[in-house]
Specification:
Length: 427
């Protein structure tokens, strides 16, 4: 087991990893930018070291400084959290070359599954169902249009290296295709320095359902059930539910088995998420794989009783998975069956203090808070809880209103007007 872990991240996920390490008896090192010197993760860690100015490229995305900090602080592993360098194949490779354990999959797997075109091709070869679409990368609008005509409109234009809704457009006819393709491609070049695109059939009114998987270094893989993340705003997840209310035990078994098969096809290790689209006829299609722990992992922890961060650390240290598939049950520890776990993301700052107690952090100076939002992420808080019957009804109503706004439950452009439907005006 590791003696000391450096956490190459900030904010909520850094605090979450520190808590897991403390309970496992592992020392922690926090890294921070000059803007974050008084943030909670720097206070909770056993040690902390500054890695540069506020700009991410000179601090949290600066591989050389993070590796130098790891060596200087004598840490033997790095946990990347989510975002920043968590899915950076180059960083994972540099860790291996420096004999530092990267708590996540190998650089080769990150590279293969991080490119959506390559991932799609790999899944097809493994017999995993994928949305009908281009088998090879597309680089020009003309080639893309020919492919779209073959597939049949409407189609989804996607950036191969995309994420977070960037480089995505829905084309419903040949007339609007070229303009939308060029816009998506330009966005991909600006955001990911990659003009590679692919085209796939657009599934009308799907459910976006992701399966959490965990794999060790000995070839064992398990799935930990699903999260329904269909309610989104600008292709970014706003609310997640587990279990999904339209998935039967038999469908869950088939989708879970497929997720495990997908992970085994690439020799996957550590935590990951297989994302599917589920159509109205309950057909499901592989969409992409996230090669990291996700923001919404606590939802799965609540319905399985597992600590995913601790499991990540154990398997990265070479230990066997602590559970087999038959041991995994979707239950609510300490709560009656039939309740639904939900996660939502609101701009409220909450945290754990040094004793592990949950408390609401007092707002700091507004100027400081606004500065952190500009430099990093608008997500200041995420909340997860067991939903009451009334809350579940409001969630269903929210889905219906989303459909009216957009014609599908993948997008929500006017979330502000209807977000009160989740918890009413008292949220």
């Amino acid at each position: 087991m590791f003696n000391k872990i450096l956490i190459a991240n900030r904010g909520e996920i850094a605090v979450r990893i520190i808590r897991a390490c403390r309970e496992m008896g592992i020392q922690t090192v926090a890294v921070y930018s000059e803007a974050d010197k008084d943030c909670l993760h720097t206070l909770l860690a056993d040690e902390a070291i500054c890695i540069g100015p506020a700009v991410s490229g000179q601090s949290y995305l600066n591989m050389e400084r993070i590796l130098a900090a790891t060596v200087a602080m004598k840490a033997d592993a790095i946990h990347p959290g989510f975002g920043f360098l968590s899915e950076n194949a180059k960083f994972a490779k540099l860790c291996a070359e420096c004999n530092i354990t990267f708590i996540g999959p190998s650089a080769e797997i990150i590279s293969k599954m991080g490119n959506k075109s390559e991932a799609r091709k790999t899944m097809m070869e493994a017999g995993v169902p994928v949305v009908p679409g281009s088998k090879e990368p597309v680089h020009t609008a003309q080639d893309g249009l020919e492919m779209a005509k073959t597939i049949g409109f409407p189609v989804m234009i996607k950036a191969s290296s995309g994420g977070g809704g960037k480089g995505m457009r829905i084309s419903r006819s040949a007339e609007d295709f070229t303009e939308l393709f060029n816009a998506a491609q330009m966005e991909s070049v600006k955001g990911f320095s990659d003009d590679t695109m692919y085209i796939e059939k657009y599934i009308e009114k799907p459910r976006h359902v992701e399966f959490q998987i965990m794999a060790d270094k000995h070839g064992s893989v398990v799935h930990l059930g699903e999260r329904d993340c269909s309610i989104q705003r600008r292709h970014q997840k706003v609310l997640e539910e587990a279990p999904c209310d339209v998935i039967s035990p038999e469908l869950r078994r088939r989708m879970g088995d497929t997720a495990v098969r997908a992970a085994k096809a690439v020799g996957y290790e550590n935590a990951g998420t297989i994302e599917f689209l589920l159509d109205k006829d309950r057909n499901f299609y592989f969409m992409e794989m996230n090669t990291r722990i996700q923001v919404e992992h606590p939802v799965t922890e609540m319905v399985t009783g597992m600590d995913l961060i601790k499991e990540q650390i154990r398997v990265a240290a070479g230990e066997l998975l602590s559970v087999s598939q038959k041991d995994v049950t979707i239950t609510k520890i300490g709560h009656k069956d039939g309740e639904t776990v939900t996660e939502e993301r609101w701009e409220v700052q909450q945290a754990w203090d040094k004793q592990g107690n949950f408390l609401q952090a007092q707002a700091r100076a507004q100027k400081t808070l606004e500065g952190l939002i500009k430099q990093y992420d608008e997500l200041l808080h995420k909340n997860w809880e067991l939903a009451s019957e009334e809350q579940k009804a409001r969630i269903a109503q929210l889905r219906a209103q989303t459909d009216k706004l957009t014609g599908n439950n993948q997008e929500m452009e006017d979330m502000e007007e209807i977000e009160e439907d989740i918890y009413g005006s008292s949220k």
